[in-house]
Amino acid sequence: MLRRLDLTTATADYRRVLPRAKVDVHAAVASVTPIVEGVARRGYPAAREATLKFDGVDVPEPRVPAAAVSAALTALDPAVRDALAESIRRARIGHEPQRRSDHTTQVVPGGTVTEKWVPVERVGLYVPGGLAVYPSSVVMNVVPAQVAGVDSIAVFSPAQQEFGGLPHPTILAACALLGVEEVYAIGGAQAIALAAYGDFALGIEPVDVITGPGNVYVAAAKRLVRGIVGIDAEAGPTEIAILADSTADPVHVAADLISQAEHDTLAASVLVTDSPELADAVDIEIARQVALTKHLERVTTALSGEQSATVLVRDLEQGLRVVDAYAAEHLEVIAADARKWAGRVRNAGCVFVGAHSPVSLGDYCAGSNHVLPTGCTARHASGLSVQSFLKGVHLVEYTEQALAEAAPFVLALSAAEDLPAHGAAVSARLAAAAASAQSPSA
To answer: What band does 407 get if pLDDT is binned at 50, 70 and 90?
Structure first.
């Protein structure tokens, strides 16, 4: 049974009262700083020590042999292979339109600005391997990078003692299906540091961008290397919010809340509804379905935690304001005229519209991306996309005449900012052009 939070008479700042997992990335930074700094100074030997200490696995050589990657695909359950292949196919379809075209704008006659979209050269894609195995995260990270045109892709995933110090074989099989040949058996903060700094002695080149979800220590390591490399986000525990009215099926709602709760004990499951009758029915269904779930203890802890609740609202108008304040990673809208309400949502990582679009569809094969902003960051951040791997570069091209026409403005502004050399850079060109025009050979 979810705890109840009644906001039907509330006028307060919803962000302050809504349930949220407490994750202290700042505190984790202190723990991972020695690891990251060690890898920056000593390279893989420092990462190897951290892997042995925290994962209990000694990995002398981090790069996974090509034979192990191909063998994992050969041994993969055919049904799982088919599912991954379909997930890849749909992800490519969903991401292809995100590619951006170069565009040239004539600002003035003889003066143009071109915005050119350039893929980053090399990326490090992190695939977690803690409470569960996530081959779907391989798909969600690799596909947009490939569609963007990234030249060099390296996947980092924790070494697993039960698999001889290699990442989980399903992770390796997904890499094989996607044609990724550079895979490293290393996880945690040490993986993020190795991706950022590399190890030239082992031929591990540093990357330009790191993406992919992970635990709080991975998030802390990303915070430390941000600026040295680009990152997608500091991912926190997963979240689902469901905006529902009395037309929603409580069986579906309960199942979806439970589906996110099985990720992690800190996972957040939040129902926002104007129907107390639905809330009561969902509680009954949660009790029934949780008793049947495999990860009973994990799910129960998540659903009973302070981060999960049923939030009662006056109507869907208020409900919309509440879910916008919550800014969920995943938001389901299950209501009469769901498309209308979903279209008005401003803050969410991904919105799932109607009774037949559950979050788990998006996790695997909707064609969308499941690497999404958490912890209220959907108010300002987007999910992983092709754009995450592209840089916009401006090309400025002016003729001599166009520069001359702009010169008075440049000179006035450079003088106003007390940067006379800026103006001189333009004046020198005008003087040269004038001299050239007056010379007998002109």
So the answer is: very high
